[in-house]
Amino acid sequence: MKILLQLFLSFALIGIGAYGGGLVAIPLIQHEIVFKQQWLSFGEMSQLLAVAQMTPGPIAINAATFVGFRFGGIIGSAVATLAVVLPSITILVLVAPLVDFASKNAHVRHLRQGLQIGVLSLILFATWSFGSGAVTGWRDLAMAAAAFAVLVAFEGKLHPVIVILASGFLGMIVL
């Protein structure tokens, strides 16, 4: 029973802080699951993220489902998954009626802009944290820089799967 409460509290905190989407959830998941609870090692966390990104659905929900199942079985999986989505659902129900007001209020717009800066910092931290594990030499760095340059040059019009597959094939040749 204690593990179910820990799963709920940990993933509720992740759900509360995951304003901005999946990439923002990564450092939150890392903090709660790797550093605070020590349920996973950094290497296991990297593997979890790889699987969570390949499966349909948000990263935080996939991570909650996996970690919950690993430490609490089917019930743990359900508890962790519910905990990670409950804050968003609650906020949506409470805030949805105020959306029109929020777009006209300067304080709310400034708050939202400040939150976006905080979200950007979490995305950059996730990139740094997991990128430093993926980039182990100058060839990796050159490939990552080239893939990033291609994405920027095409301004998001190139499907990301093409970049991933091209990087994979290039890795087979170069690395």
How would you describe what is shown here?
The chain is mainly α and 175 residues long. It has a domain at 2-99. It has 8 helices and no strands. The longest helix is centred in the middle third of the chain and has 37 residues, at 59-95. The N and C termini lie far apart (48 Å).
Kindly name the structural category.
Answer: mainly alpha
The count of DSSP E runs of length 2 or more, i.e. the number of strands, is 0
Taking all Cα atoms into account, the compactness measure Rg is 18 Å
Shape: globular
Estimated share of beta-strand residues: under 5%
Low-pLDDT segments, ≥5 res? none
C-alpha termini separation:
48 Å
Average pLDDT, to the nearest integer?
Answer: 86
The biggest beta sheet, please?
A: none
Portion in helices: over 70%
**How many H/I helices?**
8
List the helices and strands in order. HHHHHHHH
Write the layout of secondary structure elements.
Blueprint: H1 2-17, H2 22-36, H3 42-54, H4 59-95, H5 99-104, H6 106-134, H7 138-153, H8 160-174
Features:
175 residues, mainly alpha, 8 helices, 84% helix, globular
Summed up, what is this model?
The chain is built from 8 helices and no strands. By secondary structure, it is an all-alpha fold.
